[in-house]
Design a protein that fits this description.
By secondary structure, this protein is of the alpha+beta class. It has one domain: Outer membrane efflux proteins (OEP) (Up-down Bundle), CATH 1.20.1600.10. It is built from 10 helices and 8 strands. The strands form 3 sheets. Strands 1-4-5-6 form a 4-stranded antiparallel β-sheet, with no helix packed on it. Helix 2 packs antiparallel against helix 4 and helix 4 runs antiparallel to helix 5. The protein is elongated and about 130 Å long.
Length: about 500
């Protein structure tokens, strides 16, 4: 066994690793600019728990629940566990495979001596009596040396794929968090729109009653009453649609948090304002996306895995060394097993001589796959930058629209109040009143929509910046029985 160990060690040390060594691409190679093309705060912020910035306890509770109970997150955790086991299996190839065997055999001599008996037909049968026992014990080992690094490259690829699965889990986590927050904002928006519609409906009921009195008094024609009835019916028709949209948003939150669609309805039925976050967010510089965005990190690890696979393909062009050995003993008694021991050792070297260019074609195919992985990595980076800039512009747009709608509301509210007084006094017709109240409802809903858009843009910006997970760590598979992945410090050198 000592000779076998020495041979294995010598062969492993003598081996070399073929294929390119992976080096992370620089930001310039990926097309990352030095600054954003839109106005953005250059100082990055810690956005790990961005949902707490809205100061809404229910929103925070729902997001936290989705992080552990969502079914998509559970699937991502399972895929992460599968990737970990693939890495364990790959690492096992670095070590020899050892197996043992044992056996027992009983032999009986049926002729010559021993006891005998006579059958009914007169035949005499000799039972032998000269039996013997045989005990065997064996140990065998085999090892694929991997002279040219095919095993080490395979482990390298598996490790990169495992890390990519961890970042994929984080990507799913961010998506679920943002969906919960977005639907929560929508639910509060629909509550505000329902309140606006019902409030407008009460005013229109009063207008319809006043129009009826004026028609009975002969002050106006029945046209005023019909216009009032038509306006009220149109406003009433919007309520069922808003109720349907509200139900869809609330049901979606229930499913996202791993519950039945109606599970959270009692928690959210009390009307509350649309959540409001900070007016500005520290965005940082574009190169920060290479570290903060988990989808970018996953694409980078996929590129590293594809690069390692080139080495695996190239190693098949060179000789492969396999070593196997066995130790066996055979004795007639258990106590004598160590008296006679035999052993064997075999080392085999194989080399592909002719395969029609298949192996070299595999190398070229893997090189093409690596080029595709780099293009996907670069595309993911550029898409991330696009998401950030679009979210910055969307946030600014929503803030400016809220200011404009507030001005419109102030003007429309004054006009509507004046029109009601003039209509009741007979100084204005119903068409003027209808137009002013329509403008008031539009401005009121515009303010609510702008505030909801502002909150949604904030959520989009937080997620686009990679908020919602700890970017300083690599998510690792949870221990058996756990549902939430653990984290490991980010290695300084790949």
């Amino acid at each position: 066994m000592r000779r076998i160990a020495v041979l294995l060690t010598s062969a492993a040390l003598a081996g070399c690793t073929v294929g390119p060594n992976y080096k992370p691409a620089s930001p310039a190679t990926l097309g990352v600019p030095d600054a954003y093309s839109v106005t953005a705060a250059p100082t990055a912020e810690d956005l790990t728990a961005w949902w707490t910035r809205f100061n809404d306890p229910l929103l925070s509770r729902l997001v936290e629940q989705s992080r552990t109970a969502n079914t998509d997150v559970a699937q991502a955790v399972a895929r992460l566990r599968q990737a970990r086991e693939a890495l364990v299996q790959s690492r096992s190839s670095l070590l020899p495979t050892v197996s043992g065997s044992t056996g027992y055999q009983r032999n009986e001599n049926l002729r010559g001596g021993g006891r005998s008996f006579t059958l009914p037909d007169g035949t005499v049968v000799d039972t032998g009596g000269g039996g013997s026992n045989s005990y065997t014990l064996g140990l065998s080992a085999s090892y694929q040396v991997g002279l040219f690094g095919e095993i080490r490259r395979t482990v390298e690829a598996s490790r990169a794929q495992y890390e990519a699965s961890g970042f994929d889990y984080a990507t799913v986590l961010l998506s679920v968090e943002s969906e919960v927050a977005r639907n929560y904002v929508l639910a509060r928006l629909y509550q505000a729109q329902l309140a606006n519609a019902r409030g407008s409906l009460r005013i229109q009921d009063d207008n319809l009653e006043i129009a009826g009195f004026r028609v009975q008094a002969g002050l106006v024609s029945s046209l005023d009453a019909e216009q009032a009835r038509s306006q009220r019916a149109q406003t009433a028709a919007t309520i069922p649609q808003i109720e349907q949209q509200y139900n869809a948003a609330v049901s979606r939150i229930g499913v996202l948090t791993g519950q039945a669609p109606g599970a959270i309805k009692p928690q959210i039925e009390a009307v509350a304002p649309i959540p409001t976050g900070p007016r500005s967010v520290g965005v940082g510089i574009p190169a920060d996306t290479l570290r903060q965005r988990p989808d970018v990190r996953s694409a980078e690890r996929s590129l590293a895995a594809a690069t390692a696979q080139i080495g695996v393909a190239k190693a098949r062009l060179y000789p492969a060394l396999a070593i196997s050995g066995a130790i066996n003993t055979n004795a007639s008694a258990i106590g004598s097993l160590g008296d006679a021991i035999t052993g064997s050792l075999f080392a085999g070297l194989t080399q592909a001589i002719f395969n029609g260019g298949r192996l070299r074609s595999q190398v070229r195919a893997q090189e093409a796959a690596t080029d595709a992985a780099f293009a996907a990595y670069r595309g993911t980076v550029l898409n991330a930058l696009e998401d950030i800039e679009n979210a910055i512009v969307a946030l600014d747009s929503a803030q400016r629209r809220e200011v404009a709608f507030q001005q419109a509301y102030d003007a429309a509210n004054s006009s509507a109040l004046l029109s009601r007084l003039q209509y009741r006094s007979g100084l204005a017709d119903f068409l003027t009143l209808s137009q002013q109240e329509t403008a008031l409802l539009s401005a009121t809903n515009g303010i609510a929509q702008a505030r909801a858009d502002q909150a949604t843009a904030l959520v989009q910006l937080y997620v686009a910046l990679g908020g919602g997970w700890d970017a300083t760590t690599v998510p690792t598979a949870p221990p058996p029985g756990a549902t939430v992945p653990t984290t490991a410090p980010l290695p300084e050198n790949r």
